[in-house]
Amino acid sequence: MGMRVVLKRRTVRPYLNPQLDARVRYRRTLREAAALHDAKLAGVPAPTVYFVDPMGAEIIMEMIEGRRLKELLEEERRVDLMRVVGDYLGRLHGSGIVHGDPTTSNFVLSGEVLYALDFGLSFRSRSPRDQATDLHVLKEALESYHSDLFEESMKLLIEGYAGSFGGSREALAWLRRLESSGRYRGDRALERSLCLISGNRHKLQEMSVVAEAMGWRLRPCEGRKLEVQSDDLAEIALAAARAAAIPGSIVEDSGLFVRSLGGFPGPYSSYAMSTIGYRGLLKLMEGVEDRAARFESAIAYTDQAGRIRVFTARVCGAIAEEPAGTGGFGFDPVFIPAGYSRTFAEMDLREKSWISHRGIAMSRLLRWLEAYGGARGAPRGRRPHRDAEARGASAQTLYSARPIAAGGWPGPTRTRGASRTPRGRRP
């Protein structure tokens, strides 16, 4: 037919129960397809849906080629388009549709027409509070990424919104109410957002894949990560988290442990990579038959009360005979995870993120946060580390922000339950 289309497929999320995941993907696929159709009926330009397969969680839709609103604001200062965005949101809310994620990345200018994209988080509601949530998401995106245009953008946004939606006054009142009470920031924005203390953009990208799939936002923190000398990754991550003392932040430290080299490079992997590189590692292993190795990761999370928890994970595998692949970073070109015939560097980012030590540790942290009160910490009166283990959440070590007595650190080979599954529970 000569048409360019987009195939959107909701992938299986391995951290969910398979039956629950299938049901969620089925419902969200139908909901998104319906929202795209209803948006067009409301007068909001959106991609045309050509085919829906709810069982396979797939939608084939029109490809909208153009430039994202985010780029237009950054490069051409097209603030005038914010009035159009406000008009679209008003039309959607007037039709009982809440977009769910109306950021500047989800509007594309194609020719002279601005299109609304990605209705994957949309739902039906005429509640002024839900409508205010839509406005807040967009307002937060403007404040974070387009601060120099914020005031003018919001003025035009509200003008367009009020012009197309009769219930705009109630929605805007709820927006002010949520923000003035601080409830939204405390209960929603903080719960779903974490910042990573690291100058390594590859780590941010890899961990963001897992975070976004689980409904969280991971952003970089300002400041430098403290580097300490230790044989224990958990101790390194903990020391860096203590030094940073940023509530809602995480610090990640990882290492490659090669059995035939006595665990080298281990916690010194970053230094080894910058000096001898993965080719130097292969040279050290010339003629060595035992290629067993493992990657380990430790993520230290600081809650709003200043308490620090460390979540760990490991992935076993082997060192390849020769480097392969162009993706990933560090020692990825020479590490083959168990059960695979390819190195980390031969996998795409999404595939690697879910099976890597770093991705597994991240998913454990987020599962714990989901179960125990979000980014503000565990509910008062509960012992998070014991409860988490009892309920099968991730294995983690709980540290207080106070100094630990000598000898209190776990040993360098101790996993703190990272590879165990509680009895009676499926992995």
Explain briefly what this protein structure is.
The chain has helices at residues 18-41, 69-76, 81-94, 128-145, 150-164, 168-181, 183-189, 201-213, 233-244, 269-275, 277-284, 349-355, 357-371, 384-390; strands at 5-9, 49-53, 58-62, 67-68, 97-98, 107-110, 113-116, 123-124, 193-196, 217-220, 249-258, 265-266, 292-302, 308-319, 335-337, 396-399. With 427 residues, the protein is an alpha+beta fold. Helix 3 (81-94) packs parallel to helix 5 and helix 8 (201-213) packs across helix 13.
What do these coordinates show?
The chain is an alpha+beta fold and 427 residues long. The protein has three domains: 58 residues, Phosphorylase Kinase, domain 1; 123 residues, Transferase(Phosphotransferase) domain 1 (Transferase(Phosphotransferase), domain 1, Orthogonal Bundle), CATH 1.10.510.10; 200 residues, Maf protein (Alpha-Beta Complex). Helices cover 40% and strands 19% of the residues. Strands 9, 10, 11, 12, 13, 14, 15 and 16 form an eight-stranded mixed beta sheet that branches. The radius of gyration is 24 Å and the shape is globular. The C terminus is likely disordered.
